[in-house]
Each structure stands twice: as structure tokens, then as C-alpha cells.
Amino acid sequence: MIRNILLFLLFSTYAFSGTIRIAVAANVSYAIEDIKDAFAKKHPDTKVQVILGSSGKLTAQIKNAAPYDLFMSANMKYPEALYADKMALTKPVVYAKGTLAYLSVKSYDLSKGIDIVKDTKIKKIAVANPKTAPYGIAAKEALENAGLYDAVKNKFIFGESVSQTVSFTVTAADLGFIAKSSLYSKQMQQYKEGKHWREVDPKLYTPIEQGIVILKRGAGNAEVKAFYDFMLSDEAKNILLKFGYRLP
User: Fold this and answer.
1) Which domain holds residue 110?
2) What is the distance between the alpha carbons of residues 61 and 126, in angstroms, rounded to a whole number?
3) What is the pLDDT of residues 118-142, one digit of tens each?
């Protein structure tokens, strides 16, 4: 019996050796596979397991001892809080700047700019939940600064993350505020700039500085450090540029 338990533990350790677990903000889901592929070419023996979610929910999971080695947030607020609580080993660093866009799969005159939200034909507007998703915070801020928020807030349907908001935008809403990065995925390339989507004027919202930290669980793990360093490399930055991000 004891021998079987020892064999099981030995097998489990072997099976999961070389695996790193990364909590990744939902907006990066569209670029992460390209990033993983590029990383794998340099580190073929390292398996990267990605857990996607809103930055707020991932942070809550980390605070409740979720077994993540590294956290890629959609803004700096959450990794800074983890660092202050000594749950992150490295000081948060910006790895990319996210951009906000609005999308409609229907035929609206997007030349109106963000004022399109006032169109009476638009009954439902998809927005990421600003309580947990930085892109939701940015959308709310942009609408407030444009003087439109109070006029349209009753039209909102909220996604838990920006990826769920994308889904709502193409299925249930007339228009949605989403991460520009999502529009460069294979599934979304059918939607064209100017016809289906436009970038929100970056002057309307605080820059979305996306932060990365190594968590306590990743302490002393060379593979975690290798992925962290790769995310800050020119190669990773070029991939992020391809997906509509701006560089820090």
C-alpha cells in the first residue's frame, strides 16, 4: 500500500514537472497562443498552462491560494495590490498598453464616432464589468468623458470579462466596447475597421497599462523566470503589436 502511494506521488511529481501555471487577463487570450508557440521554440521542455479570466477574479483566486506562478493583468492595479500584500515577488512591470474599441456586427454609421451609442436603434451595449475588468473601467471612463454615460447606461449588458463581452457583442448586443486585441483573432478578422469597428479615442480614458508579476509560488523556478523574461523581450512585444497593443 505504502509502495503504491510512493509510486503515485513520484508519478505525479514527474507528470507535472516542467509545467508552469500562468493567470492571464482575458484580453490577452487572443495573443497568448502565439506567445506560447514562440516561447516553446526556445523552451521546448516547458509546458505553459494558461488560466484565463478577468483581472479582478484572477486576483481574488490568487489571494485564496490558487496555484498560479505568474500573473499577467489587464492593468497595474491588481498586481500592485498583490505586491503590496507580499503575494508577488517582483515589482509590477508594464508589458503592454491595451486599447479600447467599439464594435457592431450590424450596419451603423460609425463615422459619428463614439456618439453612435446615442442612436435610437442601439438598444443594448455590451460592456465588461467595471468592478472586475479594466477594459470595463476604461469604457465607462470614455463614455463619462464624452458626456454620454448617463444617457446610455441603461442600455448596458455586462460581461464578466472582456472575452465574454466580445461574445455578447457579436450575439446579443447592438454594439460593444471591447479590447482592440480581440479584433485581430482569426474568428474576428471578418469585421473591418471603419465598417464594423473603430478605436476609441485614447484621450477619453486612462491608458490601460497591463502589468506582469511573478507570484510567490513561482519563487526560484527558472522556467517561470524564463517566461517572465520572454514576455518583456522584443519578440513578445512584436507579437503584442500584431494584436493591436501599444508598447510601454
Assistant:
1) 98-204
2) 25
3) 999 999 999 999 988 889 999 999 9
